[in-house]
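Sample entry (210 residues):
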Amino acid sequence: MKIYPIVEGQGEVAAAPVLLRRLLHDHAACFEMEVGTPIRRSQSQFRSKEAVQTAVRLAKLQPQCAAVLLLFDGEDECPKELAETVRAWALEAAAGTPCDVVIAYREYETWFVAALESLRGRYGIRHDAAAPENPESRRDAKGWLEDFMPATRAYSETGDQPAMSKVFDMALAHQRNRSFRKLVKTIGDLLAQLDQPLPEWPPAGWQPES
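Predicted structure, serialized as tokens:
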């Protein structure tokens, strides 16, 4: 069985499978579930009912498709309202196949910013880098990451995004970032719909401090 992601950026085509496999295999211990090759759509297409439904139907045609996950950046839009609209379109096209929507507010890279300490000394991130109090408060998370890199080093979406997805601390991101918590919850919901056994979910120690 496979979850097929529908993603927005070129970096996400490589990064999303890395991220989802970590959640499925390393944390949910769900080795029956694999991640299919992502389907890429533009930002504007995620705001179009016709384009969203075409992408979902295409995902359903892929080998061993058991579930579909739409994952894209929300920029400055309200993620809750946008997700509700896109989810309704997607579920209609999914026609019973488990399907859900996760919007990274504001960008996928905001999840890295939330767990910045775990990236110290890697990919040009300074050894004294620390996550801001509110990682979702600023747009341009890529630029925020570059603030912690040498002046000669630029963030590479196609290189750094998959690499950082392999190593950033998911527990920290879950504790500090609402949209990452939504992703984790959604993975659990999809696995439950597929009757896949789950350990404690979210994993122990991932809950935000009260």
